[in-house]
Amino acid sequence: RMYEMFLFLMAIDTPEDKSKFEKLYGKYKEIMYYAALGVLKDKYQAEDALSQALFKIIDHLDKIGDIASQKTKGFVITVTEHTAIDCYRKLKRENLAEINEWEAYSQDTQEFETGNEVEDCINSLPINYAVVLRLRYSAGYSDEEIAEILGITKENVRTRAKRGKQKLGQMLQERGIWY
Q: How many angstroms separate the CA atoms of 168 and 98, rounded?
């Protein structure tokens, strides 16, 4: 574990950013691991996804203000989930994993959400829509920031958000929550 932290700190330039990363790592490492494990269902794959997610977060340290904020928590969990999903898809392409993607994702997100009906509906959305909606509305990121975080275009972010809102609206109407 010390070796792992050393590698991360080597990737960071300033003492301030190193300190910020150490605090972030200490606070969120466990929840990030469980987010990755919930998607991948394999502890070794989850550890790999966690490491990849931490390197992605290092690239965006300048966007993180308060380590303890909900925005930061949402950001690190979303980056971890997205990274784990990418790892899952890569494994699936390589025919190394037979995981039900929807089941893995829905079990994982229920751990971190508060269980109200709107969040249940968000958890029921396809992963690409749910991630964009969470980053945009829960964490408060702009379309440009979301595009950069997820490695997609701004147009793709807008399309996913629009489709996600439409599907969410349909689900809420079906449940009689929204008219």
A: 28
Report pLDDT digits (tens) over 63-87: 888 998 888 888 898 899 889 988 8
Retrieve residue 165's tokens.
Answer: 């809102």
Contact by Cβ (8 Å): 72, 66: yes
- Rounded Cα distance, 162 and 130, in Å: 11
Mean of per-residue pLDDT scores for the chain:
79
Residue 176 has pLDDT above 90, yes or no: no
Q: Residues for the chain: how many in total?
A: 179
Q: Is a pLDDT exceeding 60 seen at residue 15?
A: yes
What the block records as the tokens of 42 is 């394999």
Sign of the alpha-carbon torsion through 67, 70, 75, 77: positive
Residue 4: its pLDDT value, please? 65
Strand, coil or helix: what is 11? coil
**DSSP-based three-state secondary structure for 8:** helix
Output the DSSP codes for 40-100. H--HHHHHHHHHHHHHHHHHTGGG---TTSHHHHHHHHHHHHHHHHHHHHHHHHTT-----
The one-character DSSP state at 176 is: T
